Structure formats: C-alpha cells, structure tokens
Amino acid sequence: MSNDELDEALHGKRIVQLEDMEGDMKSEHVALAKLGKIIEAYIPIRAEPGQGPIVGVVEFYKARARRILPPYYAAVAVSLALLYVAIGAKTGTHWDVSVAVTPISLLAHLLMIHQVFGMSDINHVFWSIGVEWWIYILFPAILILARRWPMVLVASGALLVTYPISYLLSSRTPYGGATVHFIGIFALGMLAAVWKDKLADLRLH
Fold first, then answer.
1. pTM
2. How far is CA 90 from CA 83, 95, 100, 122, 126, in A?
3. Which of 24, 137, 172, 177 has the fewest Cβ atoms nearer than 10 Å?
4. 68-102 confidence digits (pLDDT tens)
C-alpha cells in the first residue's frame, strides 16, 4: 500500500481494510479493521523504515482538522457577517438565541467548546460541530479499548458510563451541552458496523 493510498484513507476517500496492508504494516499495532465508513479513516501506527512517514494518531488529528476546521471557521465568519449586516435583530423567535454574540462566546466557538457551556449564539446548529470534533479527539482511545476487548463490551461500557455523566451534567450543572452521551452513541455505531461486516461474512459462507 502506498503513502498516497494511506493519505486517501485519512481523508475519508478510501476504506482500507486490514487485508490491504502488507508486510510489517499488518501488525497488532493497527487500528480496528472492518468498521466500514463509520471510521472514515484507517489509522496504522507503524511503517517500515524508508517507506515514508508513520501514519498514526497525530496524522489522523491533522487530517480531521484539515477537513473540519476550515469550513467550520468559514461558516462562523459568514454567520457573524450576516448577523452584522442583515439578520442581527431579535425577532421574538428561537433565532434570538443566536443574536447576542459576546467576545467570550466567540472565543469558545473558535476553541470548539461552546456546546459545553450551552452557547447558542452566532449560529445555533454549531453545537453539533463541537460535539463531532471532541468525538474525533476521543476516537483513537475507543479503538485502543476495542483492540483489547470485544466491541460489544466497549460500546456497552461507553453507554453505561456516558449516559449517567450526561444526566448529572444536565441536571446539576450548567454544562449539559457537553452531551457526553454522544460518545456512547458513537461507540454503538461502531458496534453496528462490526456486526454488519460479520453478517456480510456469514452470507458469503
């Protein structure tokens, strides 16, 4: 497998399976295989000397940042411009939550932690981008757990841990917007992808 193919995998343009790896690249140090498009990227963390750079967690983060951050920051800029010149007046509707922009909330949006504090200004739908970004941050950790234990245990554990935390944050703190339970939902999606591939293998046999 060439470095160009690995780069395509990191950018979500190619689904790479464990069977596609060659030589020492096919080792215990590879990410969970056969998760399909839910992963969007394959994360090997080992390469032969002289075969190019190691492609691992850092490269995965860089690839995700290149794909998510530029359009996100562009959308923030466009939303701010529209608020300033056209749609910044309160209307008595739900839109009003996006109007009152403050320097603190702008900084929180730039750091992608706005959803933790329930900041809905600039553009209310941006909360989901912040959640997605932090799931990507934690994604390699989920893969590490999935290498050590069955995916069903990892997904179940993620749900059992994150839902109570999310409930406590929502009911007893102002940080319910963190929506920690989405991590558990994401792990459940990974489990569904694993089962899908296993069912496909059974049909082939």
1. 0.68
2. 10, 7, 9, 13, 19
3. 172
4. 999 999 999 999 999 989 888 888 887 888 888 88
